[in-house]
Write a structure and sequence with these properties.
Distance between the termini: 18 Å
Radius of gyration: 19 Å
Number of strands: 17
Number of helices: 4
Strand order of the largest sheet: 7-6-17-14-9-10
Helix content: 10-25%
Structural class: mainly beta
CATH class of the largest domain: Mainly Beta
Length: about 230
Amino acid sequence: MNVAVVGKDSKYLETILLGKGFHISSDKPDIVFSYGGDGAILVSERVYPGIPKVTIRDSDMGYKCVFEKDDIETVVGRIKKNDYNISEYIKLEAICDGEKGVALNEVQVHNKRPTRAVRFNVYVDGDAVYRNVVGDGIVVATPFGASAYYRSVGGKPFDEGIGIALNNPVDRKPSLVVSESSVIEVEMLREVGQVFCDNHCEGMMLLAPGKRISIRKYDGVAKFVL
């Protein structure tokens, strides 16, 4: 079986996997081992979208990891025997002025200039749900990302749908969870917003006044070994 490892200490895990008869392949892996924390999970899904991930925690910030470092021998043995289950999570697609991005956790629109608030409207399936919001931006999250940045800006946890939470608005408003088939649009009214998909700074997009970003469920899913 061909496998790939993503993480700062990937060589450690690669050595174990080679000793168990796996082949290390960064081109066409059958399974990807994410070794580290939550950041490693996001990177592994971005580099190897849709390929089943084995998430092993070797960090203080690995809340979404299924396995601990002490579980390596056990989970590797199960993989060899094809004795495991797969869970699937939706992802989000963001389209902004012809550019596209994909997120496992969240799509974030944030003020580009930290000293200036942005002003924007938010629509769900064409209907305005927030008007003339003034603040630092907005976070649109998947259930997988519900416990990440979305929660830190006041979003309530959820298991199904797509979550919408305003980031530090002048007028406080509750978060909102909509159907996963919904289309969310953010219309920038004032200042320039930066659009991030998860922690991928290199894929940042800009949302200028008068422009809209469209966010919806992505066609593919993320798969995790249980």
